[in-house]
Amino acid sequence: MNKFWKALLSTALLVGTTDILAATLMSWARSGNFPFKLFHYIAGGALGLERSMKGSWGTALLGLSFHYFIAFSFTLLFFLAFPRLSFLRGNAYLTGFLYGVFVGACMTFMVLPLTALPPNPFKLFNALQGWTVLGLVLGIPIALMAKRYYLNKLTEL
Questions:
Q1: Which residues neighbour 4 within 8 Å (Cβ) at sequence distance 6 or greater?
Q2: pTM of whole model > 0.85?
Q3: Which residues, other chains included, contact 11 with Cβ-Cβ below 8 Å and sequence gap of 6+?
Q4: CA 108 to CA 85: how far, in whole Å?
Q5: What would the pLDDT profile of 67-126 be if each residue is shown by its tens digit?
């Protein structure tokens, strides 16, 4: 496996894990209950919520797979855009945070409406809270890892 794929996959695994941990903690903090059916809910995007919530471990595994596929996709997008868009090479913390907000907005306004999940009313405070978390646990790590990968690539030349 070449260095690009190692960097990409390790970053996607990291941000997928930190994102699901953050989602679990936020859900638990809001409701006081551990979200045992979180992965079932994610699978509901393909299966429909009623069907997915009645599912077994296989349904949860499907939801987990979807979650990591989405994390991988947004990581890949950033890694491919990084060498082509000069503004991404600035301050990795600011760029990464804003990328996390971008990911949150894409998920809210583009991806989730295309799924089988029932529509949720848009609540600005909840969206900003979720997007802020995505900026911290997804965007910043992606930006830092992409910058590190491409800087190492330049020093090898």
A1: 79, 149
A2: yes
A3: 75, 79, 141, 142, 145, 146
A4: 24
A5: 999 999 999 999 999 999 999 999 999 999 999 999 999 999 999 999 999 998 999 999
> What would the two tokens of residue 22 be?
């953050």
The CA distance from 53 to 144, in Å, is 36
3-state secondary structure (DSSP) of residue 84 = coil
Question: Using alpha carbons only, what angle is made at residue 70 by residues 57 and 81, rounded to the nearest 5 degrees?
Answer: 160
Which residue type is seen at 54? K
Return the amino acid letter for 135: G
Burial class of residue 145 (count of CB atoms within 10 Å of its CB; 0-12, 13-18, 19+): buried
Q: How far apart are CA 96 and CA 85, in angstroms?
A: 14
Cα gap 114→104, rounded to integer Å: 15
Question: What are the phi and psi torsion angles at 123 (to 5°)?
Answer: -120, 115
